[in-house]
Amino acid sequence: xxxxxxxxxxxxxxxxxxxxxxxxxxxxxxxxxxxxxxxx
Length: 40
Hints:
This protein is mostly helical. 75% of the residues lie in helices and 0% in strands. The longest helix is centred in the middle third of the chain and has 30 residues. The radius of gyration is 16 Å and the shape is rod-shaped. It starts with 6 loop residues before the first helix and ends with a helix.
C-alpha cells in the first residue's frame, strides 16, 4: 500500500503513531505486571 505525501497523510500518521505509542505502553505495563506475578 502506498499513501500520498500530503498534509492529511502527515496528520493521519501522527494520530496513528500516538495510538501505537499508547498501545505499546499498555502492552508493556501488562507484560511487566504479568511476569512480575509469575513464578517459574
